[in-house]
Amino acid sequence: MMLPVALILVVGSRTGLLDEVQDRLTFKQASWFDNTALTNHLRLVARRHHLTTLPAHCLVPLINTVGARNQELANDTVFEIMGRHGHDCPGQPGAEMLFRLRVNRLGRLIFTDAGHPGQFTPLLP
Question: What's the pTM?
Answer without folding.
Answer: 0.76
